[in-house]
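Quick one, tokens below. Sequence please?
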């Protein structure tokens, strides 16, 4: 599989350190509110990557953190007259509810920043001991960006360019404007943890360096997040981890493009966002997942109500195809074997697409092409062939994390027996009874379609 690596700015063959095992870290949410549809993009995209790597037979160690201490959480707690942890735990639960709704697999570990203060202070100490970080006179600890000669390698900008806009302001306690906080001394009334530098809390970036090291090791295979995290968040994570550990932090970096509204990034600060919860209440969760993986992950994606509706309609076509397969299997009388080969061809196309930098758009197109073939051929196929098609259909849609809300056998027994009776009375040419049964079925909300494979019950 090839992936576009932000470090090298090209598609690289994705080779893990240990064959058959991938260690992946994905920056997770800051839990102070419901997530919006833009936040759900990395969640769904990288869950799809994980599913694909597992489908190929690999073991995936997948770590996605919870930022449970930060200025926005403290602000929200103050507004509500409560403590930061009440806010953080509440919205962490809401986040997991949305993840379940979006059919996102639980991570191997969902580490919380506040439960890794020891690990955070251990890295901070390593950096201070090696001279990469210093303690300012107010108790803050800063990283010396100039001391790291690789600084800027992920965003491909030399330090001088990054520095151009930065100014040291009056009263600044940093040695240099590019230095960034590893540890922040606490202000009165703020949550604080004891440290050798006085009471304080972690800076923004250090938690990911510490939790990746703790749960995945010094060098990981892949680190992911939205493209807005490249600078400064990921650049700073690299600086801290590589200077503390003395080795490469992550071999590959993947970044998803923005979810936009009218060409502006969906974000809380621009107030142009829709929460996943609100959209799910209107159209369900699955169309949101479908939408988020319907384009290539590096391209911008434009959110509109219409496009979500059309995703819902597309999903309905897949549900119908799969339900038709169930029906055909229950009535299979043909000899055809064509779908066995079509299933293998669909798989090959699907893999080609996914191997090319996780091209979910083309992978979805391969599934739809397969669905059309199923619809065309199923009436004349053998049971074995239909089963092979169903298995492949489930497997490929499962890699995309789709089709989890399909209503399977939802036809009640009394409806089925009415349909069976209708078949009998029609054979006996008892049209009056057949019509009466049709009316009774209609009053129950069902119609019967007579197909080549026999009567099919459809809910209206
Ligand atoms: P935040 O809680 O703002 O740190 O965001 C959590 C994740 O969502 C990060 O990986 C961000 O890069 C990502 N993200 C935030 N807004 C968007 C957006 N509009 N489109 C795509 N990804 C986003
Ligand atoms: Zn992070």
């Amino acid at each position: 599989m090839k992936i576009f690596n932000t470090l090298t700015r090209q598609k690289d063959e994705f080779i893990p350190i240990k064959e058959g095992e991938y260690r992946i870290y994905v920056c997770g949410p800051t839990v102070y509110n419901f997530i919006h549809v833009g936040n759900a993009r990395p969640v769904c995209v990288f869950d799809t990557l994980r599913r694909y790597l597992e489908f190929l037979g690999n073991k995936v160690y997948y770590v996605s953190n919870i930022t449970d201490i930060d200025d926005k959480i403290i602000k929200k707690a103050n507004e509500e007259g409560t403590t930061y942890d009440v806010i953080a735990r509440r919205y962490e639960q809401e986040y997991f509810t949305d993840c379940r709704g979006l059919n996102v697999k639980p991570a191997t570990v969902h580490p919380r920043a506040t439960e890794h203060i020891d690990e955070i202070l251990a890295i901070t100490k390593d950096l201070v001991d090696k001279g990469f970080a210093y303690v300012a006179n107010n108790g803050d600890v800063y990283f010396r960006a100039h001391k790291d000669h690789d600084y800027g390698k992920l965003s491909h900008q030399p330090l001088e360019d990054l520095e151009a806009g930065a100014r040291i302001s009056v009263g600044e306690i940093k040695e240099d404007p590019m230095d960034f906080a590893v540890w922040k001394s606490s202000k009165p009334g703020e949550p604080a943890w004891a440290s050798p530098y006085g009471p304080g809390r972690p800076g923004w970036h250090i938690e990911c360096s510490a939790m990746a090291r703790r749960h995945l090791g010094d060098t990981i295979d892949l680190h992911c997040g939205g493209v807005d995290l490249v600078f400064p968040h990921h650049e700073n994570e690299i600086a801290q981890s590589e200077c503390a550990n003395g080795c490469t932090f992550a071999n590959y970096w993947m970044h998803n493009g923005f979810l936009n509204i009218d060409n502006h990034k969906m974000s809380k600060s621009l107030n142009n966002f829709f929460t996943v919860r609100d959209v799910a209440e209107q159209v369900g969760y699955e169309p949101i997942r479908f939408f988020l993986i319907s384009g290539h992950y590096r391209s911008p994606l434009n959110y509109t109500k219409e496009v979500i509706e059309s995703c819902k309609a597309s999903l309905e076509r897949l549900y119908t195809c799969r339900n038709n397969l169930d029906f055909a299997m229950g009535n299979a009388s043909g000899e055809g074997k064509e779908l066995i080969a079509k299933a293998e061809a669909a798989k090959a196309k699907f893999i080609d697409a996914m191997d090319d930098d996780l091209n979910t758009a083309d992978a979805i197109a391969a599934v739809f092409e397969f669905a059309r073939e199923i619809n065309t051929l199923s009436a004349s196929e053998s049971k074995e062939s239909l089963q092979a098609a169903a298995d492949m259909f489930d497997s490929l849609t499962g890699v995309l994390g789709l089709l989890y809300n399909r209503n399977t056998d939802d036809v009640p027994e009394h409806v089925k027996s009415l349909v069976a009776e209708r078949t009998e009375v029609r054979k006996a040419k008892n049209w009056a009874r057949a019509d009466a049964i049709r009316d009774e079925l209609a009053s129950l909300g069902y119609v019967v379609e007579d197909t080549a494979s026999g009567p099919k019950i459809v809910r209206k």
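Residues 218 and 245 are 6 Å apart (CA to CA). Residues 2-256 form a domain with the Rossmann fold fold (CATH 3.40.50.620).
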